[in-house]
């Protein structure tokens, strides 16, 4: 089924929240998922696989230990926490490339490389084993296959966009991934009670006047 | 937005403007989205047609209304239903309605209508695609509808007192746009000049809905009365608007879109500053203001509410109107910055309702100073979302201080200051507000208390080196990320934050609803509780066949002879 990108964004935000991420990172997850879909990638599937890894419960164990230096860790890094930090530290990429790893769902790093590129006004290249992706912030050119996990990524302000993918205005997520996101989203909803039905929205039940 | 006109009076301070009590007293003005639309359609000489009206004697069927501008045609597809009374609810969780609609991008084929007929009547349970720009539904005002059909079918015009008491024959209970239910994203249409101002597709859908409702009531009267039936008198039809019943679902919108909301408020504040800066007014400008003030008195006289808070506000407004009339009777409104004098006086003499009415009214004589600002009201600044991680901790604290200084010392642990929590119910995914200490909702709380969150972040930042980049703080404290983002947005959006507590035991969500609806151009706000309001849209507006540049704008003010 075809979805509006706003639907993808709204569902992704609720799903990330339902999976236990704080609101600010849930917002990042939403924009990132939308961006991947606009590039023609199945961002919903990437997010669903990430949320199933369950990093949110122990996020600090899956986040860089500090903003300095390379971000190398024992446990796999969460691409939302790591990507957000990457975007926050975009200026660093001007001086020299940085290495991060291991990273789960490295595709989810790409939207943050894009916001870094927008801040730098230059292309950012993300390279890992078997793939290399370049973004100018708006478009993406990706060679190779994006894996489910990358031992090490090299990220730097470099590259150019020879042949960017045409931007998409709709998303067609895999049905199972979409269902998974909705299952996570459901955890962010308060169970309905008759009391909340009556009090919460504040309207009467009849419209016969 | 980039203000260009020379102003000697500056915009009002956000600390004054953004209090919820004042936002809950806003009135429509020249920048209201309905007026932006009708002005454009008249100026560009849009044409309108009704290529299909296939509705049976029971009122069941489909109709299509088209609106064609210089570059494109849009079509309202209306599905009319025969709804049993027990299913008629204006709750968002209703499952059936008297009529359902979609605004279609272009002219629908029979196959499009067939596809949509299997989806639009089911609203949230259906799917549309990117050819739909909005999806909406409406219910009849049951008593007034029956009265109109009876009267017209018997060859009589309906009683105007009854018509005025309600104001509309149908009210919408939701108008979904921007990607909802599969419709086109706002981003897909935002670069079209006719849809670039906010909510233009939704406003067009309601404008055409009003035509459909008029046609349908006449059709039903003919079905009932045959040759005895008469059409609705044009002056009665013109006074009817479309009602809207809006619950809490809309309230979070202005919190969730701080840059967009800023752009609305800032455009109006810039307009007010420009007009206040006018040194001398011409006789015609002064006369225009006086006419609109008189017509506002008529509008206020027709504004009814049974809600105690609004009854009190209306009483104040009527007193304010008397005071305003006396003030303008004693002043020629010509010299020494007349509008600035008026606004400064209003701040000392009128209630918030009256102050904001005066602020909207002074804009009326100044189309050339004001109307262009409607181009600044959309949110095109997508990069405002991106956090600048290099910003020092001290600067983030200072931004939080600017918007939320009033909230930093509040005792956020005190029950009355955090009595409420906003959440989304699993039932229909609608935003709701509940009692934090009485209901099991705190774990599901939505980020709709920016003031409390600002106080928390401000305190957490206090332990950090003032010169440290906020990126380092955010890496350790992702729970404050949304708050730091908003703080940075406030640099470009000084009017983006409500400066009142949105979770206190005294918060009135209807104030948030009114702030948004006033920018639509709604009138006659009638709160039904602290969190649910009925309004009227397009009352007084010319129908498409009568729309001209002469009547496209000031229709919102009733004329004395009506």
Description:
- Chain A is α+β, with helices and mostly antiparallel strands and 209 residues long.
- Chain A has one domain.
- Chain A is 41% helix and 19% strand.
- Chain A has 8 helices and 9 strands.
- In chain A, a hairpin with a 4-residue loop joins β5 and β6 (140-144).
- In chain A, α1 (5-18) runs antiparallel to α2 (23-38), α1 crosses α7 (175-186) and α3 packs across α7 (175-186).
- The longest helix of chain A is centred in the N-terminal third of the chain and has 16 residues, at 23-38.
- The model of chain A has no long low-confidence stretch (mean pLDDT 93).
- Chain B is an alpha+beta fold and 562 residues long.
- Chain B is 42% helix and 14% strand.
- Chain B is built from 21 helices and 11 strands.
- In chain B, the strands form 2 sheets. A 9-stranded mixed sheet of chain B has the order 1-2-3-4-5-6-7-11-10, with helices on both faces. A two-stranded antiparallel ribbon of chain B has the order 8-9.
- In chain B, β1 and β2 (61-68) form a beta hairpin.
- In chain B, α3 (33-43) crosses α8, α5 (142-153) packs across α8 (200-225) and α18 (450-462) packs across α20 (481-492).
- The two termini of chain B are 39 Å apart.
- The model of chain B has no long low-confidence stretch (mean pLDDT 94).
């Amino acid at each position: 089924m075809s979805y509006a990108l706003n639907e993808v964004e709204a569902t992704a935000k609720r799903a990330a929240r339902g999976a236990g991420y704080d609101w600010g990172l849930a917002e990042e997850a939403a924009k990132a998922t939308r961006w991947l879909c606009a590039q023609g990638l199945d961002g919903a599937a990437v997010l669903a696989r990430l949320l199933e890894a369950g990093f949110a419960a122990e996020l600090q164990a899956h986040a860089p230990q500090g903003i300095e230096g390379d971000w190398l860790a024992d446990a796999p890094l969460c691409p939302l926490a790591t990507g957000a930090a990457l975007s926050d530290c975009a200026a660093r990429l001007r001086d020299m490339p940085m290495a991060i790893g291991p990273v789960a769902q490295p595709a989810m790093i790409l939207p943050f490389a894009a916001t870094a590129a927008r801040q730098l006004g230059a292309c950012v290249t993300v390279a890992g084993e078997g793939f290399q992706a370049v973004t100018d912030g708006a478009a993406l050119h990706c060679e190779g296959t994006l894996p489910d996990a990358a031992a090490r990524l090299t990220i730097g302000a470099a590259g150019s966009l020879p042949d960017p993918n045409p931007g998409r205005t709709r998303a067609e997520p895999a049905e199972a991934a979409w269902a998974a996101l909705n299952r996570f989203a459901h955890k962010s909803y308060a169970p309905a009670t008759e009391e909340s039905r009556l009090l919460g929205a504040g309207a009467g039940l009849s419209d016969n006047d | 937005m980039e203000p260009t006109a020379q102003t000697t009076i500056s915009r009002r301070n956000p600390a004054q403007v953004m209090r919820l009590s004042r936002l809950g007293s806003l009135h429509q003005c020249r920048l209201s989205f309905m007026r932006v639309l009708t002005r454009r359609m008249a100026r560009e000489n849009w044409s309108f047609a009704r290529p299909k009206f296939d509705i049976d004697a029971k009122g069941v069927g489909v109709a299509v209304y088209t609106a064609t501008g210089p570059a494109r045609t849009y079509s309202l597809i209306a599905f009319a239903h025969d709804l049993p009374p027990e299913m008629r609810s204006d709750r968002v969780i209703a499952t059936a309605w008297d009529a359902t609609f979609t605004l279609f991008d272009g002219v629908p084929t029979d196959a499009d209508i067939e596809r949509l007929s299997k989806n639009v009547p089911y609203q949230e349970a259906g799917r549309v695609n990117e050819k739909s720009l909005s999806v909406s539904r409406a219910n009849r005002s049951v008593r007034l509808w029956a009265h109109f059909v009876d009267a017209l079918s018997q060859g009589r015009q309906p009683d105007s007192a009854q018509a005025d008491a309600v104001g509309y024959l149908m009210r919408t209970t939701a108008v979904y746009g921007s990607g909802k239910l599969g419709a086109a994203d706002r981003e897909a249409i935002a670069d079209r000049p006719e849809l670039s101002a906010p909510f233009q597709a939704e406003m067009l859908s309601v404008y055409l809905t009003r035509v459909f409702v008029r046609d349908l009531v006449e059709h039903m009267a003919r079905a009932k009365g045959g040759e005895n039936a008469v059409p609705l008198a044009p002056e009665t039809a013109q006074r009817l608007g479309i009602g809207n019943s809006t619950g809490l679902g809309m309230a979070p919108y202005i919190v969730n879109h701080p840059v967009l909301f800023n752009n609305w408020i800032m455009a109006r504040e810039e307009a007010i500053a420009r007009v206040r800066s006018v040194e001398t007014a011409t006789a015609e400008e002064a006369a225009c203001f006086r006419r609109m003030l008189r017509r506002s008195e008529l509008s206020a006289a027709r504004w009814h509410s049974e809600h105690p808070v609004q009854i009190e506000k209306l009483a104040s407004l009527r007193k304010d109107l008397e005071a305003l009339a006396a003030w303008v009777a004693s002043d020629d409104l010509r010299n020494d910055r007349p509008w600035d004098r008026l606004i400064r006086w209003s701040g000392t003499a009128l209630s918030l309702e009256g102050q904001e009415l005066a602020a909207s009214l002074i804009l009326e004589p100044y189309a050339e100073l004001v109307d262009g600002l409607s181009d600044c009201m959309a949110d095109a600044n997508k990069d405002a979302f991106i956090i600048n991680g290099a910003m020092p901790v001290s600067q983030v604290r200072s931004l939080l201080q600017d918007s939320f200084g009033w909230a930093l010392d509040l005792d956020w642990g005190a029950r009355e200051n955090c009595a409420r929590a906003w959440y989304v119910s699993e039932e229909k995914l609608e935003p709701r507000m509940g009692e934090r200490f009485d209901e099991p909702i705190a774990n599901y709380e939505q980020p709709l208390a920016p003031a409390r969150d600002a106080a928390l972040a401000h305190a957490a930042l206090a332990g950090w080196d003032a010169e440290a980049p906020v990126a380092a703080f955010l890496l350790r404290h992702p729970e404050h990320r949304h708050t730091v983002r908003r703080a940075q947005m406030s640099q470009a959006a000084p009017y983006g934050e409500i400066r009142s507590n949105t979770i206190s035991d005294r918060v009135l969500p209807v104030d948030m609803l009114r702030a948004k609806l006033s920018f639509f151009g709604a009138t006659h706000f009638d709160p039904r509780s602290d969190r649910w309001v009925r309004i009227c849209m397009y009352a007084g507006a010319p129908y498409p066949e009568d729309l001209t540049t002469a009547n496209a704008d000031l229709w919102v003010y009733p004329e004395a002879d009506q």
